[in-house]
């Protein structure tokens, strides 16, 4: 799997737009389905002729992710039913910090 959101950290601004999760395998897997799990939701995509795959993660799903460390898992299953799973650790930091202003005088 390639880095998610560029650096495996999903920040507030990145959560305001859908993000693409991508990766690659061998070209012999072309046409097979990749199943990705993130935050309890499952997404599917197809492996292209060049072995690459990509899956769009919708904005609403990104904004529903809990803060902190999460794993993304991607599973590829071959025609014989054998599967391979890889994981990618990400960090969700979408909550903006609080800003407090103190009284200037008195």
TrEMBL record:
InterPro entries: Big_13 (IPR044016), Ig-like_fold (IPR013783). Residues 21-92 form the Bacterial Ig-like domain. Pfam families: Big_13 (PF19077). It comes from the Bacteria. NCBIfam families: Ca_tandemer. This is Bacterial Ig-like domain-containing protein. It comes from Hafnia alvei.
